[in-house]
Amino acid sequence: MKQEKSCGCIVIDHHQVLLIQQVQGHIGFPKGHVEAGESEQETAIRETREETNLEVQIIGDNRYQEQYSPEEGIVKDVVYFLAQKVGGFEKRQEEEVSKIMWVDLEDAEDYITFDGSKRILRKVTADLRNRKSK
After folding, report:
1. pLDDT digits (tens, 9 = 90+) for 75-118
2. CA 51, CA 21: separation in Å to the nearest integer?
3. Which domains does the chain have, with CATH numbers?
4. How far apart are CA 32 and CA 15, in angstroms?
5. Which of 9, 16, 38, 99 is the most exposed place for a label (fewest CB within 10 A)?
6. Does pTM surpass 0.90?
């Protein structure tokens, strides 16, 4: 069984979340493969920048993980970090991304394609609510 690992960011800005539509059609969070010598957080920031042109900063120390099989014989781990936009402007990586969108947190689950990413969004939303109530 081949093992793959990707990292990405769940970027929150003014009660909206950043979503991307891949050229294959599915919608989720920016993410990509870990390169040699990179930490998970470095990969997440780099991949978000490459796919969206946004500079982001990871906030908090929460780490959200899912695992799935993109094709037979491959198991993929994806790690996400909560982040905020700190610079740049939205410009999609044309080879991989067909659309960049900011969606209200309450509506985002309706846009996201895969159940694992929907579960992560629910966990992020709950964590954000808990942070505000403290």
Report:
1. 999 999 999 999 999 999 999 999 999 999 999 999 999 999 99
2. 10
3. 2-133 (3.90.79.10)
4. 24
5. 99
6. yes
